[in-house]
Amino acid sequence: MNSLLFVPLAIGALVILKFLLKNINWWLYESQFGGKKYSLPPGDMGWPIVGNMWSFLSAFKFGDPDSFVSSFVSRYGNSGIYKALMFGNPSVIVTTPETCKRVLTDDEKFQPGWPETTVQLIGKKSFIAMSYEEHKRLRRLTSSSINGMEALSLYLTYIEEIVKSFLEKWSNMGQIEFLTELRRLTFRIIMHIFLTSETESVIETLEREYTSLNLGVRAMKIDVPGFAYHKALKARKNLVAAFQNIVNKRRKERKENVSRKMKDMMDALLDVEDENGRKLCDEEIIDILIMYLNAGHESSGHITMWTTVFLQQHPEIFQKAKAEQEEIIKRRPPTQKGLTLKEVRQMDYISKVIDETMRLITFSLMVFREAKSDVNINGYTIPKGWKVLAWFRTIHLDPEIYPNPKEFNPSRWDNKISKAGEFLPFGAGSRLCPGNDLAKLEITVFLHHFLLNYRLEQVNPSGSVRYLPHTRPIDNCLANVKKCSDSSI
Question: What is the pTM assigned to this prediction?
């Protein structure tokens, strides 16, 4: 008799245990709201502690990233707003242009809400954790050198020279990790803008540390050897030490009145002061540098790789893009030696190719905000202190906005005027990525010379893709860069 009772009792105990586990997060995060809980967005908080992170990570790590949001849609309907427990915090995921626009542009109701891991790695004094007023002031100062094509015209010659040099070098190297090499290229460019005079050995050291740092930015907070977050913490420590040495060196040069031929962003950060005459401390300067140098090469490196791959995969698009570049060369005066800003602005089709790549890949699949007070969106309440995840990837792959969304089709941008919130490769609002113009200029210059003179031969063109922290081939695009024998220049 006892043995006959054991099985149903065990099953009953498991059912009760599952019920309790599934409702612990409700008790922790929702029960306190009383009647207000009924206006929370639909969704669930997942399991205790881990919340919805296992389903998020499994979706992205096993090759079906869109299944994470689609699982909410299938269970709770297409409301475009869902509650979840993400990165250790009660959160609301927003997936429509209208909701994302509201979250990104309403600075009175929302502030940055990045996960603790990201803030720890990028820096508590960086833009991602700064108050609105402080961010506005420092952004205005620091973005002046990398925002707007007119400002970037100062760097056009350098960018073109280093692109040509790297392409020539790669064509003689045989098999390379194309993504790794592109990241080195874009890192050299951002280093030139921020830290002009640093040596090659310093640049190589910093670039290696940034690779480890970036892999841990959106990892779970597991500070144990072997895990991405632990490696990233060590990388940050090394970066802080390296930048502190650079800051010390610059301050010493100033005391000794050592003149510098060219001013860079480090000089600007050392010079800036607020209305009360307060200058930035070393910690503020270093965190801003860590943030800018990380963001300033990762996105442009990845998007350049994917744009090149897509062009090579679509010969008809490649030829159309190449013809545009050949026409620019034909119109060029014989005395002109390199690209001009005017020519870059004439590259209409290449601009569409880049936009289509940024839409299809969505380098930053989401950004994080936090509700500063209770906020009502579409009849749902986002409680004060809850995180809000603006999920760009879902918008960029919405078939109602972009028909056949997983097709690479630059011509979809012909005469297309995107509504607010429909195209968000660099975010929106006051915290729009300040390096967007620099990234697009780098990609454009690279494609100009690649299309005219080179082709890419991937070793594993159908190889697996990794989606975290950013979409990339698992082999980092192992390939050969071949120089064309019929190059026109």
Answer: 0.90
